[in-house]
Structure formats: C-alpha cells, structure tokens
Amino acid sequence: MAASSAMQSILSSPLTRVTNRSSVNQFLVPTCFVPHLSRNATMPVRCMAGQNEQKGQEPTPRAPKVSTKFSDLFSFSGPVPERINGRLAMIGFVAALGQEFYTGQDVFAQIANGGIPWFLATSILLSSASLIPLFKGISAESKSDGVMTSDAEMWNGRFAMLGLVALAVTEYVKGGTLI
C-alpha cells in the first residue's frame, strides 16, 4: 500500500511532465530518480532453502507426501490394485510354467488339483506384505533406484498378466500343455 501511494506521488509530481523525452524513462519518471545498473552488473543471490542444514553436507531429499487413506490406496488409479495384481501375476506365471514343466499338467488341471488354496495363501501373504509399507506412507517410487525401479516392476507385472492369460488361452485352444 505504501509503495503504491509513493509511486502515485512520483508519477503525479510536476517533475514527471518534462518535455525533453531523452531524460525520461517509459513511466515518465525522470532518470535521476531511477537507479541505473549496468548491463553486466553482478548481484549476489543467496538460496534460503537449506538454511537449517550445516555447510558441507548434502541436503536430505524429502519424500513426497503419500496418502495413507484406504480409499486413496485402493482407488482405480491408486498404487495398490495394479501393483498387487502384477506381483501375483509374476508369481503365478512362473509357478504355472514350473509346475507344468515338472508335472506335465496344464493350468486348468493345476487349479483343479489343489491350486486354489495355494493361490489364496499366496494372495493373502503378498497383499499384506505389499500393503504394510503403503499404509505407513512409504511409496514404491521412493525405494526404486538402478535397474529395480517401480516402473520396471509395473511393466513386468503387466507382461506377466498378459503371459498368464496367453498361457491359459493357448492351452485351452490347444487342448493340452504348452510344454
């Protein structure tokens, strides 16, 4: 407010009505009132973000705030549904191929011969192990670095889902095991 009234008083003063335009800038303020900085003037700028940290130490990266509400975690675009389904598909695809190679049974025979209790036990164990860090506020992206990234896990899970469906469809159409 004070700056606004000061600017109005400068602009309305009789000095601003100078007829010689060479000594007046674009706001009709005489150049004697405007400080002049050369084009290559250096101005020190200091960052105030890491003021509490000691010198010589790297600032600790702050993890983004992650919602721990049940409805946010299990929403359609939340982190839980695709991640858990992808992990289950990865385990299921490898287990189905391994069991098929070992016993010679197709996927449907494996499910019919006692595969449902194993599926339920694996689902409960893997789901609870995946949910505990998310309910504590730890995101999968914060722990991913190098080759083992959260994006790589998502893509591997998607490919495992497609592979498991393709295995079941191929065995159904073929009428027997793939191997």
UniProtKB/TrEMBL annotation:
Bilayer topology:
Multi-pass membrane protein
Q: One Pfam annotation, family name?
A: Chloroa_b-bind
Q: What is its main location?
A: membrane
Q: Which GO terms describe its cellular component?
A: chloroplast; membrane
Does this entry carry the keyword Transmembrane helix?
A: yes
Q: What keywords were assigned to this record?
A: Chloroplast, Membrane, Plastid, Thylakoid, Transmembrane, Transmembrane helix
* Cell compartments where the protein resides: Membrane; Plastid, Chloroplast
Q: Which family does it belong to?
A: Belongs to the ELIP/psbS family.
Indicate what this protein is called per its UniProt record.
Answer: Early light-induced protein
What organism is recorded for this protein? Fagus sylvatica
